[in-house]
C-alpha cells in the first residue's frame, strides 16, 4: 500500500486565538456534507486517527442512520454532528440512547423555534454555518439560552471582518472556514485491516472476566466479520442446528478459544489484490502447524496462529516485526514468528521445511521418538490441505 494514498480531508477548527482545537474530517472527494458509514468505519479501523490528528478532537458530519453502523470510540474524542432538519421529537428515544452509550453529539443549524426543547437538550455541541445564516442572524441565534449553553462551532468563516465579529460575540466559540484554514488532503498509509478489532479482542481474551457479550461487541463493529462468524456456526465441525442471529450466540457455539483463529482467517481473506492461492497456502500452513502441534505437544496452544500469521508479510507487503507491533499476542507466539524459538518456533521450522522440500532441515530422528515417521508426517500434511479447503469456504 502506498504511503501517499489520500486517506481523508482535514479542516482545522480554531479558537479565538487561532489555536487549533479540533479537526473537521471530510471525505477525500470533499464533495459531500455528510459521511457514509463505509467511509467513517474505515477511518476508525484502517487509519491511526490519533496519530494523524495529533490527539485533537475530531468533528464529522453524519446522519442518525449512519450512526447506528459506527463503533463507539473510547480512545478518541469524536463529536458527531446531525442535521437539525432531519430530526424531530420522534427521534428522542434514539438520541437519548446514543448519549447514554457515551456518544458525543452535535446539532447542525438548530432553530429553537422549530425543534422541541427536549430534543435540543440532548446535544452538547451546536454547529452554525455562514452559508446557511447571515452573521447577524447567527449572532442573534447564539444568544438563545438553549443554544448559548452548548459548545459552539461556526463554520464557513470567509473573511477577517466575520472572524473579528465572531470572536467578540462568541469568545468561547470554535471557528473554521476558508479564511482560517484551507481544506487539505491527508496522505498516509492505512494500517492493517481489522487490526484495531484484533487488538481489542486479544486484550479482552487476556482478561478472564471477558464475556461472550463483550467479545461480540468488538466483532459487531464490522458487518462482514459478524456475518462470517455467524456463518461459521453452520459448519460441520460445530454441528449447530440453530438459527444463529447475533455474534454473541455465535461465539458461545464456536468457543472463545477458537475466536481469534477465525478472526485471523477473515482478516486475511478480506485483503484485496492478492491471489486466492495465497490464502489457501496460509490456511494450509496454519492447519499443518496445528496438526503437528497436537501430536508433539498436545497441550500447546497457538500453533494455528503461528502458521497463519507467518504469511502476514505476503498479504500486507510489510515486514513482520512492524505488522506484529502493538498486537498483544502471547510471547511464545511472537518469538516463534520472529525468531523460530520455543516449541512453536520448532513446529514452524519443520512445516516450512516440509513445504519447500528441504528434507535435510527436518529432524526425522527426533520426530521418530514421538512416533512420527515420514509417512505419518505426509499424512498430516495431506490432512492439512483437506482442512484448509473446508475452512476456505468461510
Automatic annotation (TrEMBL):
UniProt xrefs under InterPro entries: HDOD, RNase_Y/CdgJ
HDOD domain segment(s): 191-375
Coiled coil: none
Lineage, highest ranks first: Bacteria, Pseudomonadati, Pseudomonadota, Gammaproteobacteria, Oceanospirillales
Protein name as catalogued: HDOD domain-containing protein
A Pfam family per the record: HDOD
Amino acid at each position: 500500500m502506498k504511503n501517499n494514498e489520500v486517506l481523508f480531508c482535514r479542516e482545522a477548527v480554531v479558537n479565538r486565538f487561532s489555536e487549533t482545537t479540533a479537526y473537521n474530517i471530510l471525505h477525500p472527494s470533499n464533495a459531500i456534507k455528510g459521511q457514509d458509514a463505509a467511509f467513517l468505519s474505515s477511518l476508525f479501523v484502517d487509519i491511526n486517527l490519533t496519530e494523524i490528528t495529533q490527539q485533537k478532537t475530531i468533528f464529522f458530519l453524519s446522519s442518525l442512520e449512519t450512526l447506528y453502523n459506527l463503533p463507539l470510540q473510547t480512545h478518541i474524542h469524536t463529536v458527531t454532528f446531525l442535521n437539525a432538519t432531519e430530526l424531530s421529537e420522534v427521534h428522542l428515544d434514539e438520541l437519548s440512547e446514543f448519549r447514554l452509550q457515551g456518544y458525543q453529539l452535535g446539532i447542525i443549524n438548530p432553530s429553537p423555534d422549530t425543534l422541541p426543547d427536549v430534543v435540543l437538550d440532548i446535544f452538547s455541541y451546536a454547529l452554525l454555518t455562514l452559508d446557511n445564516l447571515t452573521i447577524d442572524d447567527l449572532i442573534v441565534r447564539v444568544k438563545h439560552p438553549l443554544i448559548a449553553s452548548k459548545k459552539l462551532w461556526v463554520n464557513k468563516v470567509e473573511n477577517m471582518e466575520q472572524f473579528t465579529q465572531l470572536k467578540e460575540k462568541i469568545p468561547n466559540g470554535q471557528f473554521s472556514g476558508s479564511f482560517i484554514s484551507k481544506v487539505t488532503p491527508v496522505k498516509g498509509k492505512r494500517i492493517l485491516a481489522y487490526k484495531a478489532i484484533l487488538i481489542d479482542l486479544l486484550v479482552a481474551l487476556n482478561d478472564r472476566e471477558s464475556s461472550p457479550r463483550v467479545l461480540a461487541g468488538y466483532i459487531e463493529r464490522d458487518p462482514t466479520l459478524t456475518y462470517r462468524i455467524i456463518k461459521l456456526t453452520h459448519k460441520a465441525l460445530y454441528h449447530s442446528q440453530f438459527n444463529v442471529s447475533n455474534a454473541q450466540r455465535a461465539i458461545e457455539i464456536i468457543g472463545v478459544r477458537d475466536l481469534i483463529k477465525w478472526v485471523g482467517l477473515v482478516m486475511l481473506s478480506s485483503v484485496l489484490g492478492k491471489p486466492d492461492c495465497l490464502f489457501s497456502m496460509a490456511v494450509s500452513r496454519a492447519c499443518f502447524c496445528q496438526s503437528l502441534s497436537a501430536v508433539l505437544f498436545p497441550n500447546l496452544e497457538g500453533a494455528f496462529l503461528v502458521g497463519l500469521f507467518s504469511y502476514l508479510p505476503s498479504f500486507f507487503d510489510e515486514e513482520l516485526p512492524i505488522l506484529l507491533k502493538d498486537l498483544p499476542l502471547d510471547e511464545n507466539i511472537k518469538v516463534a514468528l520472529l525468531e523460530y524459538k520455543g516449541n512453536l518456533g520448532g513446529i514452524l521450522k519443520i512445516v516450512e521445511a516440509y513445504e519447500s522440500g528441504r528434507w535435510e532441515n527436518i529432524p526425522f530422528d527426533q520426530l521418530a521418538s514421538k512416533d512420527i515417521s515420514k509417512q505419518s508426517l505426509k499424512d498430516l500434511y495431506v490432512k492439512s490441505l483437506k482442512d484448509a479447503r473446508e475452512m476456505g469456504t468461510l
